[in-house]
Each structure stands twice: as structure tokens, then as C-alpha cells.
Write a structure and sequence with these properties.
Elongation Factor Tu (Ef-tu), domain 3, Rossmann fold, binds flavin-adenine dinucleotide, 5 helices
Length: 265
């Protein structure tokens, strides 16, 4: 579930390739892309995300993919011949370097199932991909305090927002991980308190973040951004709207993944 608006960027379909990969922390692999169409890509910062086309068959093509991923684009994608159709997964831009034209994406490596996590763990330099930019989910409304709640899949989004938000922002960010060693450096405004919440690796996401949220002294004037496993994202929203009376329009939420369910397409 999500209430983020999907934008359709001018950059259309962007073809590029892997320059290198690096294991930044035990469960996070950073894939750096460069070259191809990245020279015309418009970086917006924050939690800018895209639909990433990942090759899964020898005959996969990128040149005939739709340039937008709305209803029409999805239909076009689904009618492409099987065996030439890459898989689509959603990812956040961790950072983009204007000078070098290098774009980083941090992938949670979550075992041996799925397409994207395993691809990131094994892809070699030169591996081709394509993506379709979908803009930013972060859509703040005027409020005294800001709240961010995320799990490890939302770590790139949370860190991007903390890096790019106004330096006079005041509030809290709860970032839940299943391994303390997956923490990364944070460039947050001085008055944004970052709370790392570490759950048991076997526990459901949200097990630590949601109780931690209940302990926070929240203002009625709040904008919240809550992303990660579906139960975490929707659980935080339900608490804020249902129990704390925060208007729905002040809460941006998005279930980034669901336990036991592969991402569609
Ligand atoms: C807007 C948006 C931005 C996102 N940005 C990022 C990002 O920057 N980095 C990132 O790592 N993820 C991000 N995600 C989440 C990512 O798209 C999903 O985790 C996706 O399911 C991974 O695809 P997959 O092919 O590896 O696994 P899938 O084929 O989709 O799923 C296979 C199995 O793995 C499980 N699974 C999927 N993801 C995880 C996970 N994170 N942890 C544990 N089990 C999992 C599923 O429940 C399923 O059982 C984002 C999602 C959205 C909607």
C-alpha cells in the first residue's frame, strides 16, 4: 500500500550499465552505474526512485521498453515477448555525482530468493540495465516537526531525505535494521534526532520501530514519511492517523516490500 504520487519524468527510458559494485555493509551492496543515457538524467535528490529493468534471460532487451510506466507503459511492457523481457523492481537513488555522472543504488541482499538482491550480489562491471525515473515520494507539507520511519529497504530513502531536507528541520528519524553493522553515516540537520532501532534478524520488520514510535513526543503539527516492509509502513501510518490524529494528508507512506511476496512484474 502506498499514497506516493508517481511522476513521469522527462528523462524517459534511461539505458546505462554497471561500473562497479561494493559491499558497503554486510547486507547492503552498492551498485554504481555510469555511461549511456545518464548524461541526460535529471537528479532530484531526496528519495528519488525508479523502475529498474534487470536482465534475467540471455535475450533480454532494453531498447523496446516503454519510456513511462503508467497504465499504457505497463501494458506495453506486459505484451513484450517473454524471453526478451527483463524484470522490473523499484529502487531509490542513493546518490548521484554530477561531475563523474555516477549513480549509486544500495540493494539489500536478502538471501537467495528474488531477482534484484541476487543480481546485485553477482553482477559484473559492464552489465546492462535500464530504468524509468518515477520522481520523489517525499512530499512534505508545512509542519513544525518531521518524522521519518524506515527499515533497511528504506535506508537509502531515509538517508537521502535527511541529507537533502532543509537544515533547520526539527524532528525524528527511526531507522530499523536487522543488523547493527548495516548502519551508514548520516548527514542530518542538527535538530533531526536519528534513532537506530535494531530488531532480531528473525523478527518481523516494525517489531522495534513501531514501539519506538509510540515513545516519541510528537507534535500535532507533523509531517511523516514512513517506508519499508508493508506492515511497518502502514503500521506507522495507522498509529499516527488513528491514534494521534495526524491528518492523512500529512503522512506519506509506502510499503516497499511484503514478507513472502515477490514484487509484481
Ligand atoms: C519506491 C521504492 C523504493 C525502494 N528502494 C529500495 C532501495 O533503495 N533498496 C532496497 O534494497 N530496496 C528498495 N525497495 C524495495 C525493493 O523494491 C523490494 O525489496 C523488492 O522486492 C526486491 O526485489 P527482489 O527481486 O530482490 O525480491 P522479490 O522477487 O520482490 O521477492 C522475493 C522474496 O524476497 C522477499 N523480499 C523482498 N525484499 C526483501 C527485503 N528487503 N528483505 C527481506 N526479504 C525481502 C519477498 O518477501 C519475497 O518473499 C524499494 C521499493 C520501493 C517501492
Amino acid at each position: 500500500m502506498s499514497n506516493i504520487s508517481v511522476t513521469h519524468a522527462d528523462s524517459g527510458l534511461v539505458l546505462t550499465s554497471v561500473k562497479r559494485t561494493q559491499r558497503v555493509t554486510p547486507h547492503m551492496i552498492r551498485v554504481t552505474f555510469s555511461g549511456g543515457d545518464l548524461d541526460r538524467f535529471a537528479y532530484k535528490g531526496f528519495d528519488q526512485w525508479f523502475r529498474l529493468a534487470i536482465p534475467v534471460h540471455d535475450g533480454d532487451r532494453f531498447d523496446n521498453l516503454p519510456s513511462r510506466f503508467g497504465f499504457g507503459g505497463l501494458l506495453k511492457f506486459l505484451t513484450l515477448p517473454k524471453g526478451t523481457r527483463p524484470m522490473i523492481r523499484n529502487y531509490t537513488i542513493r546518490q548521484f555525482d554530477d561531475e563523474s555522472g555516477e549513480l549509486d543504488v544500495d540493494f539489500v541482499v536478502h538471501g537467495t530468493t528474488g531477482v534484484a538482491g541476487t543480481w546485485a550480489a553477482s553482477v559484473e562491471p559492464g552489465g546492462p540495465v535500464a530504468f524509468i525515473d518515477q520522481g520523489c515520494g517525499w512530499a512534505p507539507v508545512p509542519a513544525k516537526r518531521t518524522l521519518i520511519v524506515a527499515d533497511e529497504s528504506g535506508l537509502p530513502a531515509a538517508l537521502g531525505v535527511l541529507r537533502d531536507m532543509p537544515r533547520d528541520a526539527v524532528g525524528d528519524a527511526i531507522i530499523e535494521l536487522f543488523d547493527e553493522r548495516d548502519k551508514q553515516d548520516v548527514e542530518a540537520p542538527e535538530e533531526m534526532n536519528v534513532h537506530w532501532a535494531i530488531r532480531d534478524p528473525e523478527a518481523t520488520p516494525g517489531t522495534v520501530a513501531l514501539p519506538a514510535l509510540r515513545e516519541l513526543p510528537l507534535s500535532d503539527s507533523l509531517y511523516a514519511f514512513t517506508v519499508g516492509e508493508s506492515a511497518l509502513a502502514t503500521g506507522a501510518r495507522r498509529y499516527l492517523v488513528g491514534e494521534r490524529g495526524i491528518p492523512k494528508s500529512n503522512v506519506t507512506f509506502c510499503g516497499y516490500w511484503r514478507i513472502g511476496k515477490a514484487s509484481p512484474s
